[in-house]
């Protein structure tokens, strides 16, 4: 039974997604008449993806996040995601309050807050049902 | 949670990398467990105990005050 040799290319998923998003930025900015900014955005995403692949060779943490995660890396990823969400919620709430204090509608922060709140409630319900 | 993973690993002549490979976790995870910075899940704790041929209670020690 093979237990140690891994031939998975799963570690390429995030860098490929990064390059794909760079191409999306290129197309979007080209459509908007700003192809130079599009090329710059693509270059940044390609550089970021390349840096990830290089870091994977030297860092066990990056390697774990990309393709060989164990329970500790998964827990770190989960907590980091939660902290990121908290930061985003704080920014959305502050931006929403500032907007309505200026007499504006609060858009799009109201919608972002709504989506975040509904997602949280649905997630809690689903996770509770699953046990 | 205190544990005897380091002592038992050294007694077996294994490096952290060796033990990590046997348990299919990262070397950092073994290091974090040995230095009490990470408490493993029940399945991993059982896997560690089984690897050393002891019970979970013999290798992990809950501190009751």
Question: How far apart are the first and last residues' alpha carbons of chain B, in Å?
Answer: 13 Å
Strand order of the largest sheet of chain B: 1-2
Shape of chain B: globular
N-to-C SSE series of chain B?
EHHHHHE
Tally the helices of chain B. Answer: 5
* Mean residue pLDDT of chain B: 93
Q: What is the number of beta strands of chain A?
A: 0
Determine Rg of chain A (CA atoms, Å).
20 Å
Question: How would you characterize this protein structure?
Answer:
The complex is a heterodimer of chains A (131) and B (65). Chain A is mainly alpha-helical and 131 residues long. In chain A, 79% of the residues lie in helices and 0% in strands. Chain A has helices spanning 13-31, 35-58, 60-66, 71-101, 109-130. The longest helix of chain A is centred in the middle third of the chain and has 31 residues, at 71-101. The radius of gyration of chain A is 20 Å and the shape is flat. Chain B has 65 residues and is mainly alpha-helical. Helix content of chain B is 58%, strand content 6%. Chain B has 5 helices and 2 strands; from the N terminus they run βαααααβ. In chain B, α2 (16-23) packs across α3 (27-34). Chain B starts with a strand and ends with a strand. In chain B, 18% of the residues are buried. Classes of the chains: A mainly alpha (131), B mainly alpha (65). The interface between A and B is small, with 11 and 12 residues.
Describe the structure concisely for a colleague.
The complex is a heterodimer of chains A (131) and B (65). Chain A is mainly α.
Topology of this structure?
The complex is a heterodimer of chains A (131) and B (65).
Chain A: H1 13-31, H2 35-58, H3 60-66, H4 71-101, H5 109-130
Helix pairs in contact in A: 1-2, 2-3, 4-5
Chain B: E1 2-3, H1 5-11, H2 16-23, H3 27-34, H4 42-52, H5 56-59, E2 60-61
Antiparallel strand pairs in B: 1-2
């Amino acid at each position: 039974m093979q237990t140690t040799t891994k031939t998975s290319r799963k570690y390429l998923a995030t860098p490929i997604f990064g390059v794909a998003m760079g191409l999306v930025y290129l197309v979007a900015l080209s459509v908007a008449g700003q192809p130079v900014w599009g090329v710059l955005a693509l270059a940044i995403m390609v550089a970021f993806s390349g840096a990830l692949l290089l870091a994977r060779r030297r860092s066990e943490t990056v390697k774990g996040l990309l393709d060989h995660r164990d329970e500790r890396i998964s827990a770190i990823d989960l907590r980091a995601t939660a902290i990121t969400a908290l930061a985003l919620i704080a920014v959305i709430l502050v931006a929403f309050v500032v907007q309505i204090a200026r007499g504006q509608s609060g858009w799009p922060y109201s919608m972002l807050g709504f989506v975040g709140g509904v997602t949280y409630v649905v997630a809690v319900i689903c996770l509770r049902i699953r046990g | 949670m205190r544990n005897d993973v380091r002592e038992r690993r050294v007694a077996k002549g294994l490096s952290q990398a060796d033990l990590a490979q046997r348990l299919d976790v990262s070397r950092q995870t073994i290091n974090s467990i040995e230095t009490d910075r990470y408490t493993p899940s029940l399945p991993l704790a059982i896997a560690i105990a089984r690897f050393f041929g002891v019970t979970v209670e013999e290798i992990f020690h809950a501190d009751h005050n």
